[in-house]
Write a structure and sequence with these properties.
Length: 349
C-alpha cells in the first residue's frame, strides 16, 4: 500500500526538498516514430499552483493511444519538439496548491486520464496536474495494480454500462479482448450477469481468454464472426458490441447483432474508413472516455463501480508484465506493439 507509515514516512524537511526540486526526469519525444524516439530527460518541476496537485509517480500504465500518439496516428498531434506522453500513473501526493481540499500530502492517487497527454503526460518521476485530473486510489491498492486500473475500467464502465446499457443476460461481443480494456470488459460483463464473447486474431490467446472468463472466443483469422455469434446466440445475434478497432470490420460487428442492437466504438486501431452494417435498426455510439472523465459526477460513479468490484473480487486487473525502471519505457512500448501480451503493461518508476 503506497501510503506514508512509520517506516516509510518522510520528514517535512525531506518533502520540502523534493517539492522544491528544480527538475525531474520525464519521457519526451522530439519526432514521431517508433519506441526508439522516446528519451528520458530532465524537465522543469514547478511548484503546484492554485488547484493543482504534485505527486511522485510510482508506476505507469501503458495504453495503445500512447503508441498511436507517439507515431503521429492519434486523433490529435503532438507538439514537437519536446512532447510529453502518458495518460495513466499511480503515485503519492507530495504537495498541493492553494484551494485544493480534496487531496493532501501522503494521499495515494491516480491520474484520471482526462487531459492532453502531449502537455500533461505522466511518464516521469513527478508530475503536476490539476486536481480535476486526479482521483484517489482504492484503499490498500498497490501502485502497479492502480496504474493498470483506472483508464481500463472507467472506459469499460462508461462505454459498456452507462453508454451501451449492458444488462444481465445480454450477449456482448468484445473485440481486442486480450488488451487491458478487453480483459476489463470481459470481467465487467461477467459482473453484470452478461455473456462475454471475446474476439482475437489467431488461436494463441484463446485458452487464456477462456481462463479469464470469456464465455466464448472467436478467432477472426479462421472463423466467421457473424456465423459464430449467430450460432452462440441461437440465431438471435448479440445485443451489444464493444469495439476498439473500427475500420471496414465494424460492419461485420453490426451484422452480428440482433436487430435493434447497439455497437459502442471506443477506438480506431484500424485507420481505414469505418463501414456500417445494414442490419437496421442499429444504434452506434462513439465513446471518448477522456471527455466523460472530465465530469466530476462520472468520476464518482466510476470510482464507486470500480472500487466495489475490486473489493468483491469481481474486478481484478490483468498485468501482462511490469517493467522495472523508467529506462525500460522503450522495451514496454515494444512489447505493446508486438501484440504478444494479454492484459496491461506497467512500468515501475
Amino acid at each position: 500500500m503506497s501510503t506514508y507509515s512509520a517506516t516509510t514516512a518522510v520528514t517535512d524537511k525531506a518533502v520540502t526538498k523534493a517539492v522544491t526540486k528544480a527538475v525531474t526526469k520525464a519521457v519526451l519525444f522530439h519526432e514521431i516514430g517508433g519506441p526508439e524516439v522516446l528519451k528520458i530527460e530532465d524537465v522543469p518541476l514547478a511548484q503546484p499552483g492554485p488547484g493543482e496537485v504534485l505527486f511522485r509517480v510510482e508506476a505507469i500504465g501503458l495504453n495503445r493511444a500512447e503508441a498511436l500518439f507517439r507515431a503521429g496516428a492519434y486523433y490529435y498531434q503532438p507538439t514537437l519538439p519536446g512532447s510529453r506522453l502518458g495518460y495513466e500513473a499511480a503515485g503519492v501526493v507530495e504537495a498541493v496548491g492553494e484551494g485544493v481540499t480534496a487531496f493532501a500530502p501522503g494521499d495515494a492517487v491516480m491520474s484520471a486520464a482526462n487531459f492532453d497527454f502531449g502537455v500533461h503526460g505522466v511518464y516521469g518521476e513527478r508530475v503536476v496536474l490539476s486536481e480535476g485530473f486526479v482521483v484517489r486510489r482504492p484503499d490498500g491498492m498497490d501502485a502497479v495494480t492502480s496504474a493498470a486500473m483506472w483508464l481500463t475500467y472507467s472506459t469499460v464502465y462508461g462505454g459498456l454500462v452507462e453508454t451501451g446499457g449492458l444488462a444481465p443476460g445480454d450477449h456482448v461481443v468484445i473485440t481486442g479482448a486480450s488488451s487491458g480494456v478487453g480483459t476489463a470488459a470481459v470481467q465487467t460483463a461477467l459482473r453484470m450477469g452478461a455473456v462475454p464473447i471475446a474476439t482475437t486474431r489467431g488461436e494463441a490467446k484463446r485458452q487464456r481468454l477462456l481462463e479469464l472468463g470469456a464465455a466464448h472466443v472467436v478467432s477472426t483469422d479462421s472463423e466467421d464472426l457473424v456465423k459464430e455469434v449467430k450460432r452462440i446466440t441461437g440465431g438471435h445475434g448479440a445485443r451489444l458490441a464493444f469495439d476498439a478497432v473500427g475500420g471496414p470490420g465494424f460492419a461485420a460487428l453490426g451484422d452480428a447483432l440482433t436487430p435493434g442492437g447497439t455497437a459502442v466504438l471506443y477506438g480506431w486501431l484500424d485507420p481505414r474508413p469505418i463501414q456500417l452494417s445494414m442490419n437496421w435498426p442499429l444504434t452506434v455510439h462513439t465513446y471518448a472516455n477522456g471527455v466523460l472523465a472530465r465530469e466530476e459526477d462520472f468520476r464518482r460513479r466510476a470510482a464507486a463501480f470500480i472500487g466495489s468490484g475490486l473489493t468483491s473480487g469481481t474486478l481484478a486487473p490483468v498485468i501482462a508484465e511490469a517493467f522495472d525502471g523508467l529506462e525500460r519505457i522503450t522495451d514496454a512500448h515494444r512489447l505493446m506493439e508486438s501484440n504478444a501480451h494479454t492484459g496491461k503493461i506497467v512500468v515501475k518508476v
